[in-house]
Amino acid sequence: MDNRLIYTAALYSNVIKREGLDWLQAGENEAYLSNVFVRISKKELAAFKEAATELTALGLKAAKQIVKNDLWEEAGIPENAIEIIKYSMKHDRDMHLLNRFDFAGGIDGIPIKLLEFNADTCSLMPETTIVQEEHWIQEQYKLSEKPFNDLVNSLAENFEKILKLNPKKDKTLLISTLDHEEDLLNVDIIVKAAEKAGFEDVQLMPLDKIIFSPEEGIFIELNEAHYQRYDFFYKFIPWEFIAYEEPELMDILTSIVTNELGIILNPAYTMLLQSKAIAKFMYDLEPYNPYLLKTTLDAKDFPANFYVSKPVFGRMGENIAYYDGDSDPEYETEGDYEDFDKVYQELAKFNVDRKEHRYQPSVFYTHEPCGIAIRRQDDLIIDDDAEFVGHTIAFQ
Questions:
Q1: Is residue 329 very low, low, confident or very high in pLDDT (cuts 50, 70, 90)?
Q2: Residue 287 lies in a domain
């Protein structure tokens, strides 16, 4: 792996400040942006694209199997989400805006293996679209071709398609987050793509300032007795958070969607794809697929104790346990997701450098593969302490 690394100067802090990305270098994030680029060959890039394209189709196939056979409990789906998922699977299939695959391997001949399918609220967008592009511009005398990044253009194309599929809807888009700084930076990319696609009114609004009416749709109050309706709503808020933490809102959103009073992005069926259990259903469909790791709902399926356990709905590498042959985990992370059911996945082989950094490449997918982001960490689990690493595409 070390022969793939290109060491550069750090990205200039004034660039970070100019782009409004100070948070990425502040406090605990001080060492988040590395001064390293990974050289990826054109052949490896093609393989990453192929894997993302094939796994998108297989994930949808697995999701349909869950719906068809009512395997909601196995997939970790609560009862209050079933109706909206069924509806969105039938009616909103062409409105999945964006997802991101997290992989192991893919470089120096190590096989590409799917770790997770981030189908709902995937992060790493500003790092992919701005940070590594600006860093490449600064250091291009040391680097070969540019990073693979067409994320904003591809997102805009998806937004254009969604508008064409809904010609009777106004070109109004309301966006909301849980108000974390990282989330706000990510939705800035969504705003750019939506405006590029032709949305005429794009607004970012705290969730508690939005009016969700089961009879009329989604609104904000402009001033006393004056309201603006929005036909499209992009929520950088996980569906599982709404289902478990805001059940009343979940019921209202179900009414809005099923009565066609508004379009919510990403659609509710992405909750099925976001569930870590989707890897189990994908594996059941194609156990010999070269991109899949054996994934089950029972640790007993790994009698030699070589596996990782993950919560069905977990984020940022939290509550993951790594078993390396013993009955007790060799390494585990803490977090807020321990109450969820777990899936069990065979160990993957990672690209590792001499300093024991594990490299995790991720591929963004809209209607096509459209960007690569890489993180690395010197632990067995890639979590919120990972570094972001740029990449460049080699000529050969």
A1: very high
A2: no
